[in-house]
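Record type: monomer structure entry
Structure origin: computed from sequence
Chain ID: A
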Amino acid sequence: MTLEEVSGCNTTDREMEAVSQALEELLVAAQRQNCLTVGVYESAKLMNVDPENVVLCILATDEEDESDVALQIHFTLIQAFCCDFDINILRVSGMTRLAQVLGEPPAASNVNESKDLHCILVTNPHADHLKLNEVGSYCKESRCNNQWVPSLSLRER
């Protein structure tokens, strides 16, 4: 392995960690500003009524969700809708960390009140949030590299 390859790998890892951190900060800020829509059905309803106000769509899964055919069909339809309306899409793994960031009980706790975190929309296109720009830039760079739905892994902290 050459020095350039080693440096390139480290930069990519650092960039991914920076984008993960930016996403977490964006979600917390958007939640405080009441600019989050959480849940597959809730998100689909909002995108049907008011797609112009959606600035980011997060599709979250873990390994056990990959075999959920109904969820994957919903994701495919949501992704198509986002592409039609030029909404940035980000595929995220790490549902436990996502629940922690949003202050939700983990899905494994069997609490009846736990929310469906598989789809999260960030709204309010007028918000000039630095972290939104950082996450949006990552999505756009990924599209330039022919990765239309970029992936990101949220790690336990």
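Annotation 1: The longest helix spans residues 3-32.
Annotation 2: Residues 36 and 102 are 10 Å apart (CA to CA).
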